[in-house]
């Protein structure tokens, strides 16, 4: 694997927390991807509206402008999703931090055990064996507490992290569906029957209906409620 700042920072992490450290860093990449998707979606919405305006077609101008509003709302959904990903990531960081705190306890216990066994084999009558054994008992007791805390935190925070993320995925998807359906309603207001050369299309009279579609979309988003319960 090539050298990078990430690989350097990963290498100085305690062995126990190294994999989760990398996972948390990958979550940052995911967050940046959705932030970029939001910006791109908003830019596309603006460009679509500007294009429609210069077509000199009243119907295309109005419908493309309102589709741009729908696309802009879809882009804004990414902001809420990103916020939830960040919360999910914070739960994973709590597991990582607990892992980092447990590593010295494991290492200390292992070091004392190795030292005790070496001295026992080399000098079985050494008075230091008693002291080492007492230190080892204390280290094992401290490690038991640390390991119990780790398993409790791991289960709790893993569940919380992905509960937040899955809930956010559901919310984003359901709101995208709401907006997409209203977007299709807008498309139905655009008469696309082919004209023969010389024919004149009827005047566009669906402006009020198009505005109502946006109002309906706004109302549906406000009324949206999750149908699922948070994990307990």
TrEMBL record:
What start and end residues bound the annotated signal peptide?
Answer: none
**Gene Ontology CC entries for this record:** eisosome filament; plasma membrane
Going by the UniProt record, its keywords in alphabetical order are: Coiled coil, Phosphoprotein
Q: Which residues form a coiled coil?
A: 129-156
Q: Where are the transmembrane segments?
A: none
Q: Name one GO biological process term.
A: endocytosis
Decide whether keyword GTP-binding is in the record: no
Q: Where is the composition biased (Basic and acidic residues)?
A: 222-232
Region called Disordered, residue ranges: 211-232
Name of the protein in its database record: Sphingolipid long chain base-responsive protein LSP1
């Amino acid at each position: 694997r090539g050298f990078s700042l990430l690989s350097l920072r990963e290498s100085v992490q305690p062995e126990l927390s190294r994999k989760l450290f990398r996972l948390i860093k990958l979550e940052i990449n995911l967050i940046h991807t959705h932030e970029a998707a939001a910006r791109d979606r908003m830019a596309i919405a603006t460009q679509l509206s500007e294009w429609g305006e210069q077509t000199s077609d009243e119907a295309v101008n109005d419908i493309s402008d309102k589709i741009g509003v729908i696309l802009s709302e879809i882009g804004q959904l990414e902001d809420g999703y990103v916020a939830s990903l960040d919360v999910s990531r914070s739960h994973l960081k709590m597991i990582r931090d607990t892992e980092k705190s447990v590593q010295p306890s494991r290492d200390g216990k292992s070091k004392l055990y190795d030292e005790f066994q070496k001295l026992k084999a080399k000098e079985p009558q050494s008075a230091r064996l008693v002291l080492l054994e007492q230190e080892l008992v204390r280290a094992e007791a401290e490690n038991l507490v640390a390991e119990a805390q780790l398993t409790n935190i791991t289960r709790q925070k893993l569940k919380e992290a992905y509960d937040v993320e899955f809930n956010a995925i559901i919310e984003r998807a359901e709101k995208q569906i709401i907006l997409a359906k209203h977007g299709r309603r807008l498309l139905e207001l655009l008469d696309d029957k082919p004209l023969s050369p010389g024919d004149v299309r009827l005047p566009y009279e669906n402006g009020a209906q198009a505005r109502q579609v946006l109002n309906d979309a706004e109302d549906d988003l406000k009324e949206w409620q999750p149908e699922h319960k948070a994990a307990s």
